[in-house]
Each structure stands twice: as structure tokens, then as C-alpha cells.
Q: What sequence folds into this?
């Protein structure tokens, strides 16, 4: 079964970076859902219908960016973006939630935004984060994949190997000068939960490439779609 990835999207520049990273994951065989979290409802039915229509139009603009690739679109109503995305991930049995970096991030760097950080602290899906300005790159390629995992974390290594096979990339323990960094959760994280160490947090914020943080004890299997052969 192909992994499922939800892209958190509200049409900001950072979310355009998330679209590009979602496209990269789709090249590795992931199925994509574009999700917008709307934070309130109105007693006025006409205002409620207008906001729902605006949300759907916003998502359609994002879906159009993928030019022909099949992408589902979902509007979620929740007072909290991370809670809304968690609920959708459970409903969709998603493997990954994709974010852009915080809006204040310098181009080419990764800084988790508030909603991302909340899901890095006990979330149940892998978290992918695009660097600021990633959508400005012309057809990013994944040639080298770095792995940051504790000894014995076979699931994180298996995820990295699966992606490397799909992209025709090489794996390295050097977290620098790579096109994608795979990060495992810390030793005491419960199985199926994302929890990262201070070292991992520092490596994420020092990264200049997309990052994929994997829950403890979980591997994500990407099909061998040979995207690199295109």
C-alpha cells in the first residue's frame, strides 16, 4: 500500500514550499491530500457558506499546482490546526503530515512552525518539513539522503532505505550536504509516537534540506516507482 501524506495548506509562501515537498513525496509513490483547517463556524448561515466556499477555492488553487497529479482536498473545522490535522490523519490513516517552515525562516533553512512543533511532541504521524523558499527551486532532486537515528533504530533506517531505492539515492550518516534528512524519534518515545531529542531539534534547525521525522518503531514503505529514471 502506498503511504498517504497530508499537506497542511492555507496558501502562504511556506505552504507553497510544502506543496513542492509533497510533490517530491508523490514522486516516491505517496498519495496526497491537501488540507485546510478552518478555525471557526458562524451562526449566520450565509457567512458560513461563504467561508466554506473560500476554503474550497483556496484548496483548489493548491491542487491545481500539481498539474494533473491526483490530489484529494479536505476542509477541516477545528479550533486548533494540529488537532484538526491529527483528526484527519486518523480518519485517513495517513502516514505523514507535510508542513512548510515558520514564516520568519531565512531562505534555505528549516524552522518548525507552531503547529509543526506541536505535532513533533507526541504526534502519531511522521512529520515532513520543507525549507523556506523550497518552491523556488527548479525541480529539486533527491540524490543523497542523510539519516539521524539512535543505534538499533531499524525502522528509521528502513524508511530511509525505502526512499533511497525509490529515488535512486545514496544513504549517508553525514547529516550535511544531503537533499533529504530522515530523523528518528528518541529512545524513550512510545511506539508510534514522534518525540525528538535536543540534538535532533538542533539538526533540524541547522538543516538546509527537507526533513522527515519518523515515529518510534514505525517504518514507512515507499514503493519502488523509479521516479529517478524519469
A:
Amino acid at each position: 500500500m502506498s503511504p498517504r501524506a497530508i499537506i497542511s495548506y492555507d496558501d502562504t509562501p511556506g505552504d507553497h514550499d510544502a506543496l513542492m515537498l509533497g510533490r517530491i513525496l508523490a514522486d516516491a509513490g505517496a498519495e496526497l491530500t491537501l488540507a485546510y483547517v478552518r478555525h471557526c463556524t458562524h451562526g449566520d448561515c450565509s457567512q458560513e457558506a461563504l467561508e466554506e466556499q473560500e476554503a474550497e477555492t483556496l484548496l483548489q488553487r493548491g491542487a491545481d499546482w500539481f498539474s494533473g497529479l491526483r490530489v484529494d482536498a479536505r476542509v477541516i473545522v477545528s479550533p486548533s490546526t494540529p488537532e484538526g490535522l491529527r483528526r484527519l490523519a486518523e480518519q485517513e490513516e495517513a502516514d505523514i503530515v507535510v508542513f512548510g517552515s515558520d514564516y520568519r525562516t531565512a531562505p534555505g533553512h528549516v524552522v518548525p512552525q507552531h503547529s509543526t512543533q506541536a505535532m513533533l511532541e507526541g504526534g502519531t504521524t511522521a512529520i515532513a518539513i520543507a525549507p523556506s523558499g523550497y518552491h523556488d527551486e527548479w525541480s529539486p532532486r533527491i540524490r543523497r539522503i542523510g539519516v539521524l537515528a539512535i543505534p538499533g533504530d531499524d525502522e528509521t533506517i528502513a524508511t530511509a532505505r525505502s526512499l533511497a531505492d525509490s529515488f535512486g539515492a545514496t544513504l549517508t550518516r553525514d547529516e550535511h550536504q544531503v537533499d533529504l534528512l530522515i530523523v528518528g524519534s528518541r529512545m524513550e518515545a512510545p511506539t508510534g509516537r514522534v518525540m525528538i531529542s535536543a540534538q535532533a531539534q538542533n539538526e533540524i534547525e541547522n538543516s538546509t534540506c527537507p526533513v522527515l521525522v519518523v515515529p518510534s518503531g514505525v517504518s514507512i514503505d515507499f514503493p519502488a516507482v523509479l521516479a529517478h529514471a524519469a
Q: What stands out?
A: Strands lie at 4-8, 31-38, 71-77, 96-99, 126-129, 144-148, 170-172, 180-184, 211-214.
